[in-house]
Amino acid sequence: MSSIKNDVNLSNRINKALAKEEAKKIVNGNSNQSLVNTFSRVANELLAGLLIGAGIGWTIDKWLNSSPWFMILFFLLGGAAGILNLWRMITGKGLKIG
User: Fold this and answer.
1) Residue 76 belongs to a domain
2) What does pTM read for this prediction?
3) Which of 13, 23, 30, 88 has a Cα at 20 to 30 A from 46?
4) Does the residue 96 lie in any domain?
5) DSSP for 4-61?
6) What is the pLDDT of residues 37-77, one digit of tens each?
């Protein structure tokens, strides 16, 4: 009888250990996925700011026939806007409603 109790107790401990390992894998998998999501959002924020700024500057340059000056200016402003959005995302400011 004693060996059966020990076997059941051992089986329970093994099952608990395996469940803990599964939980760790799930948590680590989710944290890796959220890290990938964060990095892709960072890239999108910067790229969108730069492309939109350059596009606006290029359009104004074509309209006013003023070579690369507005494109350079708005490219820099778009980069600054992208960095500001990243700062807001990292600090959590401006993300909450209300």
Assistant:
1) yes
2) 0.59
3) 30
4) no
5) HHHHHHHHHHHHHHHHHHHHHHHHHHHHHHHHHHHHHHHHHHHHHHHHHHHHHHHHHH
6) 878 888 898 999 999 999 999 999 999 998 899 999 999 99
Which residues, including other chains, have CB under 8 Å from residue 42's CB and lie 6 or more apart?
Answer: 86, 89
Q: How many domains does the chain have?
A: 1
pLDDT at 73: 95
- Measured CA to CA, the distance from residue 73 to residue 78 in angstroms comes to 9
Cα(35)–Cα(1) distance, integer angstroms: 51
Q: Are 81 and 49 in contact (CB under 8 A)?
A: yes
Read off the tokens for 49.
Answer: 């700011």
Spacing of C-alpha 88 from chain mean position:
13
In a domain, 78, yes or no: yes
Mean pLDDT of 74-96: 84
- Range of 56's domain? 2-91
**Distance (Å, whole) CA 84 – CA 48:** 12
Distance of alpha carbon 24 from alpha carbon 40, whole angstroms: 24
